[in-house]
Design a protein that fits this description.
It contains 15 helices and 10 strands. By secondary structure, it is an alpha+beta fold. Helix 3 runs antiparallel to helix 8. It starts with 8 loop residues before the first helix and ends in a 7-residue tail after the last helix.
């Protein structure tokens, strides 16, 4: 099989609309050992959709899809969806507003992604994009804590179509999906570190260490190798092994096996990404029109280069409450 052509994800984010996903949240969810791999994917999918569907309501993010829609994307049964919703609600990752029909059966539940208090307290210490006062953190409503991280933390640009491609693929194992998203996060950080102006270069490769991946994803070496080989075989990446020998036993790279990874997508998925409608950017940087309502409404709050270092956004949370019509105003069209 010929290796897939590298896909320029950074350039794609410049062309099409994207989800500005908080890097600290993405990193935490992918490496969280209290959630199953399926629950991690459920959270990332629901959280991304809630960002898109929030429209003008940037404080109270939620998403409402039928259990059959969730099940189809996550490749599981409807009963598993309800079971995961309940379990993740108990763990503090979802607030679920339930709705039943006249026969007492579940209809579309409204899911509000959130985070447990102890997790929020940990992530709030992550680097901010601008100067933020912590005086009013204690008064944040539970549903606002996730949105607070959106507005204040460094974010990763990732298109929703790409998230859906990875999560909904029926051939990839759950660990392979988690691994690919984790590699995307590493790839993105590397690209932005080397290109602070978000301009992609011609080098789409980066180096990873199997032992470090195994530790961070809390999996066996055999499981990691199987997931990596599956991603390679199906065209989601290419990999090349090399060995580093170092006489200094205290060195982190002492006798380690490293891999050069180049992320890509199978050809038919690359075609899908190319067919996504480009977002239209006006002459004014502060006026962006694109397919993702969340981006077009609050772009000035999300783009690091547009925010003053003295900007304080805490006032946005001061008087916010969950309104009675929250479920209705936050629902998402089935077409997404």
């Amino acid at each position: 099989r010929d290796d897939p052509q590298p896909f320029d994800f950074i350039q794609a984010n410049d062309r099409i609309s994207y989800v500005p996903y908080s890097g600290c949240v993405l990193d935490y969810i992918l490496h969280n050992d209290t959630l199953t791999d399926q629950q991690k994917l459920f959270y990332l999918l629901a959280d991304s959709l809630s960002l898109i569907s929030s429209k003008n309501n940037t404080l109270h993010r939620s998403v409402a899809l039928s259990s059959s829609s969730w099940a189809r994307t996550l490749n599981c049964s409807k009963s598993e969806i309800f079971s995961m919703q309940k379990n993740m609600e108990e763990k503090g990752y979802f607030i679920v507003l339930r709705d039943k029909n006249r026969f007492g059966k579940n209809k579309r539940n409204v899911i509000c992604p959130t985070l447990p208090d102890e997790v929020f307290e940990q992530l709030v210490e992550s680097p901010n994009r601008f100067k933020v006062s912590k005086d009013k953190l204690a008064g944040l409503a539970l549903t606002n804590k996730r949105a607070y991280l959106d507005r204040t933390k460094l974010f990763v640009k990732i298109n929703y179509q790409l998230i859906n491609i990875i999560i909904a693929d029926q051939q990839l194992a759950l660990l392979a999906k988690i691994l690919w998203l984790d590699l995307y996060l590493k790839y993105y950080k590397r690209q932005i570190k080397n290109n602070p102006l978000y301009k992609a270069d011609d080098n789409f490769s980066f180096v990873v260490c199997y032992s470090e991946l195994q530790k961070s994803l809390n999996c066996s070496k055999a499981s990691l190798s199987k997931a990596m080989n599956q991603l390679s075989r199906l065209g989601f990446l290419t990999k090349q092994r090399f060995h580093v020998r170092n006489d200094n036993e205290d060195d982190n790279l002492h006798d380690k096996s490293l891999w050069t990874i180049t992320l890509s997508l199978p050809e038919h998925y690359q075609q899908q990404m190319m067919e996504v409608k480009p977002r239209a950017v006006s002459s004014s940087l502060r006026e962006v029109s694109c397919g993702d309502p969340y981006i077009s409404k609050i772009t000035p709050l999300l783009n690091k280069d547009l925010i003053s270092n003295n900007k304080d956004l805490d006032y946005l949370d001061s008087d916010s409450k969950i309104s009675a019509d929250f479920a209705e105003s936050s629902s998402l069209s089935e077409s997404l």
